User: What shape does this take?
Amino acid sequence: MPNTIYSNFYLSNEIEDQFNSHLDLQRFCQVDNSLVGTAGMIRKINVYNATNGTEKLAMGAGNTQTITVGYSPETYTILMAQNRFKYYDEEVMTDPMVVPVGTRHMGTDMFNTVNADVFTEFNKATLTVTASAYNFGAFADAVALLNIEGTDNDPAQMNVFAFVNPADMAAIRKALKDDLKYVESFARTGYVGTVAGVNLYVKKDAVTGTCIVATNQAVTIFNKKGVEVEQERDSNTRENTIYSRKYYLAALTDATKVVKITI
Assistant: This one.
């Protein structure tokens, strides 16, 4: 039974589609496909930031602090994510699903690698809210720091999301009770409800006791369009090797759009 060799065009689309599907599904960051360069090259990005200025005042007292916005140039290194999948002709003869499943997982594994870098950028939040519990006030204060121009009925307001560790979810449900609303139109994998206009998502690698509240303007992932795929074959042993690689960088591009709630 002859072995069917997959073309580079097919494999590139298989891996690229898997990579894009995750980004489109989550909508947690901006995607810029204009990246040029190679791994190790430096790209300078102006990162916007803001200082805290919310104060609890007594009657007749006024603010002593003012929220200020500025930016600082940050340097990021273009990264290259690469993975490898091997299979033998005999494996395809026995099970034709070996190659499709393997290439699909190449895309999944690549995304997981990039996703970890994206989440690292969210965790660089400089705006903070310290609360005694994950209550309505904590999330309301976080949204106030984001300084979103709009109302609760504005689509921009509804794009605010939060990453919560699974261990904290029970505490959130107990603290919020009836304040935790479910918005069907925002149902996503891991979505558990909305409070103060913030859509809550379970994130397995989120830090316990810390909740990241942000909009998709906070972090940008810069992609070099397309996935590079190479194939090798050892005719003697009938071993086939597929490599896929993606050039990218994830950057916190607007620190005014991400807040860290700590308990």
